[in-house]
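S., here's the first fold you wanted:
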Amino acid sequence: MNYDLLSELLLAGVTFGICRREFRSRAALALGNAVIGCAALLGALIFAGVAAADGPHRLLSLLAACAALPLIAAGLRWQDGALTRRMPAALRFFLIACALCLLMVEVFQLAWWAEAIPALSAALILITAVQSRNVFAVFGALLLIACFGLSLAQLTFYPLDADQQLHILMSSSLFLLAASHPAGSRPALNPDQ
């Protein structure tokens, strides 16, 4: 059994589920999760034997880390803003973040950008979750920090490999962050309340 393929499909399923759930109420979370889900689907295609998906997967994974994750962080932090609630605003943020990411990583060759932006996004998510005092949100944010920390330290827990561990932890984290409030209710991650 191809566990790499299953972990990619798990991440895609969770993120597309979040996208479907949040599409009408929280555009930033919906769009950010959709991008991560598309990257995961491309990864699943690679593990299913479609070698042509490798280049698009690497690009979309970079944009998921440096544009989609900051969009999710901003959506969780400023929940009453236009960025969070309106798809055109979320899309503009995403496109500007993509352009900045490609400029920094591909043009200026600043590889650290691809690690710094997800780390800062995860830190903002954690700060917001702690301020909200929501147990699900805090646990989800801690899982996200652990996900990136273990990847950077190149530590894995048997029987998972690095990719499987990343996908499972990220799936769990995003699920908990999205589940930190019931659908259609006032968001629970508002630190200003």
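And the second, which I think is the more interesting of the pair:
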Amino acid sequence: MKPIGDFESERKTLLDKATNLIRGVSELVVGVERVDDLPEAVRILRGLREVCYENLNIIQHDAMILRAADWIKSKYYPRRDVEWCWNPRQTSKKGEADLHGKVAGKIVVSAEITTSKNAKGGIGKKMTQTLRKLNDVKYPGRRVYFVQTEDMRRSAEAEVKEEGYEIDVEIL
């Protein structure tokens, strides 16, 4: 895991990446209102994929990790100095959460984050795996699963209740 240094610097880096992504998309689709030629449509889609594919989700995920850290600090540790570590770009190793916070060198919170809209199909399976992973004893302290939608919150809470996990589900 990588320590989160300056939160504002990390936010600025993510904003720069998002701006570049938006600029790249704009350059591909400016003036395109209708495409009548399939090869041309495929060319545009290929360009969009090159510009967007990885970064579209990763930028949102990393920004949400920073929001989660702020939320956790304000809710649980407002008067404590918390050292934050994260796995930006979704590069967590087995046994590592997206985010954890330490107080006096001890991990007090481990969190996973999803930017998915609903828990249907493969996303539902991934949510189940992530909750199972987060519930593992390797994750010390409070465990929190952060979601962005009411549908994901309901699905995650149902899974947590059904499995008897000690995980808080929070919507950001």
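Why I say that: The chain has a mean pLDDT of 90. The radius of gyration is 19 Å.

Talk tomorrow,
H.
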